[in-house]
Amino acid sequence: MHNRYIETLGLKPGATKVEVKAAFRRLSKIYHPDINKDESAKEQFIAIHEAYKFLTDVGSKPNNEPVSYNYDPEKAAYEERRSKARAYAWQRAQEAQRHQQMQIGKILRVFDYVAFLMLAFNVLLLLDYFLPKEEVVANALSILDVNNIGENDRISRNYVDVKYGNFQIRIDRSEVYQLRKIENVRAVSTRLFAIPLYLEYPNAEGTIRLSQVYSVYKIFGLAIPVIIAIGLLYFYKQRNLDFRLSCAVAMLFVEVIQLVLFFRF
User: Fold this and answer.
1) What CATH superfamily classification does 4-71 receive?
2) pLDDT value, residue 198
């Protein structure tokens, strides 16, 4: 590769700034448009000025290279443009990330209230579970066939719903046959939310307990400590927005399942 600016001024490797200026003055007089009427004179005059400007700014040894003429100014300009493009792309990426973080922050500031309500609700559920239970004697039981409620629900075909007063509990179909012959059945539910837990009745072998097959406490009861644990992490990691957003999504997912069970059973 050659330094075309040195060649434009007709100089040799190692030319000094004095020689550069002398060559520029000499050639600019030859190719000045007012003197030289040739069609190519104007382009040559511009090239001479470009070479003079470059060499007086950069010097005859660009970047202090020991061998100054193994240098391509076009390649240097290309690398400079690439550097500027990378800097611009990095700046735009940073701006996009900051914008995204701002949007996440706005969403999480709203979700803070939702998360607090979810935590409070689950603390109440936990308290409700450990409080003394509400017990009533159900003299009148209504045994409802689940098949008549949801014929397309294959899972429900294994269970029946038993209604007593204002409460309804779902139990295994194989366990319900004896209830038709018993009048006094003890129905147990939670005290705060009145969630049915189980039915009890005595027989010759002792006390028989028929539990709710699934509810906010049965099978899905693990959701309560899970939501509380995720909620505490959510509020603890205040500065990590991405982590808090993941916690928010997880809490919402588990909470939807929990609320469906809460209001249905």
Assistant:
1) DnaJ domain (1.10.287.110)
2) 85
